[in-house]
Automatic annotation (TrEMBL):
This is DUF1285 domain-containing protein. The lineage of its organism: Bacteria, Pseudomonadati, Pseudomonadota, Gammaproteobacteria, Pseudomonadales. InterPro entries: DUF1285 (IPR010707), DUF1285_beta_roll_sf (IPR023361), DUF1285_C (IPR048342), DUF1285_N (IPR048341). It comes from the Bacteria. Residues 27-94, 95-189 form the DUF1285 domain. Residues 1-29 are annotated as: Disordered.
Length: 193
């Protein structure tokens, strides 16, 4: 009997499986390069809420699962990617939102760790830096934390106020900068170049 080709995979059945008690690492989406399958009616709002066909995804586990196959490509578009499919989705700002902050240690030895809306724990360190963009018209800051690859979390206003309370002035390249210490590194947050 000849070998049969495996049935084609769909986006949903090719998602990594996980139980409610066990978080999975993100899939190796950087290794997958399928052709564009089309546009999916899915959107991540600025507040981190995932929507499908206009309705919010209420099951946190489902949004967490989709987040494991999320990728931002060089064209500036976000995609849900599996080995056989790549679907374009809309992201209003950043795909994650940092909603919590814990601080351990103090001074230059402190470690800041953020929690995202999808319950990921992200340390502020060299692999997960902080950046603050200033709106050119209003000067209002938009702070971001690198979550993985080139995916960021917008830091919520409440958490940003907590960061501001931790801010210190430090000289960087002969310039006095305002920022925070974490993981033995100084992260400016004053929006200056």
């Amino acid at each position: 009997m000849p070998d049969r080709a495996p049935p084609p995979q769909s986006l949903l059945n090719s998602l990594p499986q996980r139980s409610e008690l066990q978080r999975r690492d993100p899939a190796p989406v950087h290794l997958w390069h399928p052709e564009l399958s089309g546009e999916m009616d899915m959107r991540i709002a600025r507040d981190g809420t995932w929507y499908h066909e206009g309705d919010p995804i209420k099951r946190l586990a489902l949004a967490q699962l989709f987040s494991t196959i999320l990728r931002l490509d060089e064209d500036g578009r976000y995609y849900l990617v599996t080995p056989v499919e790549r679907w374009g989705i809309q992201v209003d700002d950043a795909p994650f939102v940092a909603t919590g902050l814990t601080v351990s240690g103090q001074g230059e030895q402190q470690q800041l760790t953020f929690t995202t809306n999808l319950e990921d724990s992200i340390p502020l360190d060299a692999d997960h830096p902080l950046r603050v963009e200033l709106d050119p018209q209003t000067g209002e800051p938009s702070p971001y934390l690198r979550v993985r690859a080139n995916l960021d979390a917008l830091i919520s206003r409440t958490v940003f106020y907590e960061l501001v309370d931790l801010a210190v002035e430090t000289e960087v390249a002969d310039q006095l900068r305002t920022g925070v210490w974490s993981g033995g590194q100084f992260f400016p947050m004053d929006g200056a170049e």
